[in-house]
Amino acid sequence: MTKIFNRNTLILTFVALAISFGNVSAQNKKLADEVKKATSDANLKHASVSVCVYNITQGKEEYAYDADRLMSPASLMKIFTTAAGFEKLGKNFRFKTSLGYTGSINSSGVLNGDLVIVGGGDPLLGSYRYKQTVMDTLFRLWYNALRKESIISVSGRVVADGTIFDGPQLHDTWPWGDIGNYYGCGATGLNFHENMYFVYFNPDRRVGFPASIDHVQPKGIDVRAQNHVTTGPANSGDQVVIYGAPTASMRYYEGTVPMGQKNFKVRGALPNPGKTCAELFSVYLRNKNFNVMSHASDEVNSSDKVNVIFDYYSVPYSVIAQYTNMTSNNLYAESIFKYLGYEASGKGNFKSGADAVNKFLKDKGMDMTAVNIVDGSGLSKSGMATARFFTDFLAKVAKTNYYNDFRKTLPKIGESGTARNMLAGQMPANTDMSVKTGTMSGVCSYAGYATRANGEKICFAVLLNNQKVSASTVRPLVAKILLAILNGN
Inter-axis angle of helices 350-363 and 78-88, to 10 degrees? Predict the structure, then answer.
């Protein structure tokens, strides 16, 4: 009897493994072959590979390979953040930043009190990307609002109030090597200039020799630096790593810039973005002969009543979500994430954001044992999800009234965003594939939607973890998997 039990156990185990790793006879054989080639490749010998394909048209899962393994998806986590934003905030939602004052205005136009900039989490406030968001346009609107109130002088300070987000700017699991760079800046209640600054380097004429700093922008920001950047080979690109804490003005520059490119631009995380906004607005006012007596500050007195004189609204959420996914912008994702937490609980931080997104997923009937939400951008490797979780979720989103808006935010393979170079010129006729990409050290991932030549609509997820080589090395293997997914049986 014991032997019979053991034999049955082995058979059941074999069946379970077959289901988990892909039943080739019932599924896309070409896809199974490409997955097998990838997992047999020397570059992925000790890596983890997880694939899942769901046929939306037919309403059934089409292929799975190790689809229930928790994986680090990197920026694929933005899928959950931006979809939650569409559902909970709406495509027409706009972040609001208010300008107000404390105290009183006398008959001479002197404000006996402070000017207060009340942040609302807008990731585009003072951004250089759009004419309507650039610093000069923003400051002109605020200046005109003061003139309308007949204010010509301030006896106090310009105060930055970013308290709508009450937690730390950065997640404690984000790597130290990321947080001084623009993509690791994190979100504050009063973001400014995308919480980023530019530093311009002049390389030497000889490889290995020091590169000098020419200037930084925006002009007048409080950034000091120890520069250890040297000159790299021509066309070697930006190899600079910037180190520094979010509230410290000191930055440490390491790495190389390419020879032959004068004023080579590198992006860093801006220290104290809210306070920087207040400081630069103070300078702007003084240049307009508008007297501001005291230094700018980010110390807020919660007992002071703020009289709002102007509300500034961001571009619509649909635009922000599109840029978030198209360019995989971490600041935008974290601003949405924290605001979702604020909207749900009155507190804007990582915990409340995670709670809000988790509730959103749970309300959709998702298996919450197959995901771990810690931030909105996927910068933390503590964030995890299975390939099947992604396809289950994407299939559910395909049934919502915001599906078309959400899909438009995803880069098109071979055409746009972070996927513009993938399968360029290789897409079969009458097909379409929109994906979110995710890349960091040891992570290469893709998830999204596709329309096949026969009109079938599918969703899919392909996740690679723990490979020792770069994402560019394994990307050709992933490209073949994506083509097989697109072509179907």
Answer: 80
**pTM of structure:** 0.93
Cα 378-382-386 angle, rounded to 5 deg: 75
What CATH number labels 23-90+318-487?
3.40.710.10
Rounded CA-CA distance 389/395 in Å is 10
H helices within 272-402, ranges in order? 273-287, 317-327, 330-345, 350-363, 387-397
Question: Which residue(s) pair with 99 in the sheet?
Answer: 117, 310
Kindly tell me the sign of the dihedral angle through the C-alpha atoms of 121, 123, 124, 126: positive
Among residues 84, 47, 36, the alpha carbon closest in space to that of 69 is found at 47
Query: What is the per-residue pLDDT across 102-146, written as a single tens digit (0 to 9) for each?
Result: 999 999 999 999 999 999 999 999 999 988 999 999 999 999 999
User: What are 31's two structure tokens?
Assistant: 């896809």
Of the candidates 192, 128, 131, the one whose C-alpha atom is nearest the C-alpha of residue 158 is 192
**How far apart, in whole angstroms, are the C-alpha atoms of residue 80 and residue 470?**
26
- Give residue limits of the domains in the chain: 23-90+318-487, 96-167+275-315, 176-269
CATH architecture assignment, domain 96-167+275-315:
3-Layer(bba) Sandwich (3.50)
Structure tokens at 165: 């987000």
